[in-house]
Write a structure and sequence with these properties.
The protein has about 400 residues and is an alpha/beta fold. Helices cover about 35% and strands about 25% of the residues. The longest helix has 25 residues. The structure holds flavin-adenine dinucleotide.
């Protein structure tokens, strides 16, 4: 690294955000990725960029950093269907933008490609299909390494208008939630597994059966997708001179897995740290760690309850909305590090996180993938089995499966 150029491992959201800021400041920047393009880790999945953990609208925040959110396609949402564990459906709603749905992948309108175009326009040199030793890099932005949780979904054609449902259901999505996102005739039904299962297909099939029973989808499967999340709290975010950003730094939302905002924000902060505009370690601890800790405390509590706790949470959410006139207020409260969460923190650390030394020498407190519980074993419904068979036929005719249990 002797010269003045800067080297970044990983051309995903965090790496490209950092690269763009550095190149805009006049630095020579090289980004290295083992995959053949930015977004190749995904395959057309929809993801939501949240707008509740911090008060500035995230797109305004991006603009203030010199990043252009119009460089990729996004759809705003201010209302969702919330499916309670007993199948009651209510609607959290806000006057502002609650979140935006973006697509992940290698198509031109995907966020990964938008971030890539921004970096290239700023003069960044991106090298794909290159294995660069991390020791030769200034910023490590290589995404998740291990699994703390997985998500598994199906993408399909549908006639249903644009829509989002979030479902809290411990049976269909063990320990977590499932979701339906529909944008411009393409749907994604995804189940998140916060407890490790042998047959994730079974959970997805049954989740699809549930959504079909509630919505007129006219679903025509295209492909199945998924991925893993890596949740950890390292001792340090700068290790041996290298800045760790995004999920490579464990920066994730332990509660729901909304890691994109953390990824872009940490990439920007690392770049500013390198430019001498802030102290990265201090800024991460000031801006992101309180949110990460709140999300970890919420996750700790969620791990302790089943559907009964989910039901209470969903009811409280709606009660809070009625009282305050804003469905987003509850989500903001979930991430505010109040005295209760602060008092719980030692129990969270002891009860949910495990100390580990990573191969690069960093010490982290990571959230291991929890084991399956007895209640995760159940017989699939007739419709769930049919959906599984339908997928087998679609797959044999050439449909892609871009994530398997063995990838977790
Ligand atoms: C199925 C699924 C659904 C999700 N849904 C949401 C959501 O709705 N909202 C949300 O906010 N977040 C969501 N997330 C999380 C979000 O995708 C991540 O937190 C975010 O992409 C992390 O950004 P990153 O920059 O750390 O990693 P990435 O954007 O994944 O980039 C990492 C890059 O590093 C590259 N790389 C890996 N190893 C190496 C190496 N050794 N050398 C060089 N390059 C390497 C990869 O190819 C990749 O391009 C979801 C994740 C999954 C898996």
């Amino acid at each position: 690294m002797g010269d003045n150029s800067l080297h970044i491992l990983g051309a995903g959201l965090s790496g490209l955000a950092a690269a763009t800021i550095l190149a805009n400041a006049g630095k020579e920047v090289h980004v290295y990725d083992i995959r053949k393009d930015s977004g190749s880790r995904f395959d057309g999945d929809f993801q939501g960029i949240e707008n509740w953990t911090s008060s500035p609208d995230f797109f305004d925040e991006m603009r203030s950093w010199g990043l252009n959110p119009e460089s990729f396609k996004s759809n705003d949402f201010s209302v969702v269907d919330l499916a309670h564990p007993d199948d009651v459906i209510t609607q959290p709603i806000t006057e502002s933008i609650a979140f935006r749905v973006v697509e992940r992948g290698t198509d031109e309108h995907c966020i990964d490609q938008g971030m890539k175009r921004m970096a290239l326009d700023a003069g960044v040199n991106i090298h794909y299909e290159i294995r660069k030793p991390p020791e030769e890099c200034n910023i490590i932005a290589a995404g998740p390494k291990e699994s703390s949780a997985v998500a598994f979904g199906e993408i399909f054609h549908t006639d249903h208008p644009n829509h989002v449902t979030l479902q809290l259901n411990d049976k269909l999505a063990p320990g977590a939630y499932s979701y339906l996102i529909i944008i411009d005739g393409i749907g994604l039904i995804c189940t998140c597994l916060w407890r490790q299962q042998k047959k994730s297909g079974k959970y997805l099939n049954e989740t699809i059966a549930w959504y079909e029973s509630k919505y007129e989808l006219n679903r025509r499967p295209i492909k199945r997708v998924g991925g893993k999340g890596d949740f950890s709290l390292p001792k340090k975010y700068i290790h041996e001179g290298r800045y760790y950003v995004g999920e490579a730094g464990g920066l994730q939302d332990f509660m729901w897995g909304f890691g994109m905002r953390y990824a872009i924000t940490s990439g920007v902060l690392a770049a500013k740290g390198i430019l001498g505009e802030c102290d990265y370690e201090i800024e991460i601890r000031r801006r992101l760690i309180p949110l990460v800790k709140s999300s970890a405390t919420n996750r700790f509590l969620l791990n302790r309850v089943g559907d009964r706790g989910f039901k209470l949470a969903a009811r409280y959410w709606m009660w809070d909305q009625k009282r305050k006139g804003d469905g987003l207020a509850f989500l903001r409260w979930l991430y505010s590090p109040g005295i209760f969460r602060k008092l719980l923190w030692p129990f969270v650390k002891f009860g949910m996180l495990r100390k580990k030394q990573l191969s690069d020498g960093r010490m982290v407190n990571r959230m291991p993938f929890r084991k399956a519980l007895k209640r995760d074993s159940w017989e699939p419904s007739a419709r769930g089995l049919e959906i599984g068979k339908q997928w087998d036929v679609v797959r044999k005719s050439g449909a892609k499966l871009s994530f398997k249990e063995s990838d977790a």
